[in-house]
Amino acid sequence: MKVLPRKFYERDTAKVAKDLLGKILVRKINSKLITGKIVETEAYYGKEDPASRAYLGRPKYCVELLYSEPGKALIYMVHGNWLFNVVAHEKSKAGAVLIRAIEPLNGIEIMKKNRKVEKIFELTNGPGKLTKSLKITKNLNGTFVFKKDSPIFIVEGEKNFEVGSSHRIGVTRDLKKKLRFFIKGNKFVSR
DNA sequence: AGGAAGATCTACT
DNA sequence: GTAGATCTTCCTA
Questions:
Q1: Is A44 near strand B, with its CB below 7 A from some atom of it?
Q2: Is the pLDDT of residue A57 over 90?
């Protein structure tokens, strides 16, 4: 398994979001591995994006991470749920990719225990759900996801699928662009 | 203190 | 399928 290089994240946010589909998210807890295929993402930009955290400037660490170097994990709390993003943008710009859904591969029993549900489909088909399954919280903020010894990182995956796109979900002030990407026909994409 | 935020669970029309 | 309560930080007053 090859870890995606730092350069992967130093490109336009929407491109990175699209390319992250099919890649494998790896979470290491006590030397145990939990993995899942990324099946749904969204791109968020900096101050010019009304849906971005940076637009309202809150919380502060989010803005700082959005504008800092690509390849870092960015986690924040909304409505009582942690959401997992990866900082990704071209040089001197700002942006991050929100991971909305993954398909569980390994460590399913651990996820069930974390989530207290039996159905595999309910495990990770939403941004707040997958963070609970993978035990992702604020203390992973700033973690590099291109390093193999990180507690969380992303590796190469498959490429045989069709990608779909739509407007972003749950956003009160959205842009005109379609910034949500997902694998067509995958059962783990959120509704 | 109060309010708002990329959501989720539950309980129904 | 939708509607409502509840969720947990962080910012502003």
A1: yes
A2: no
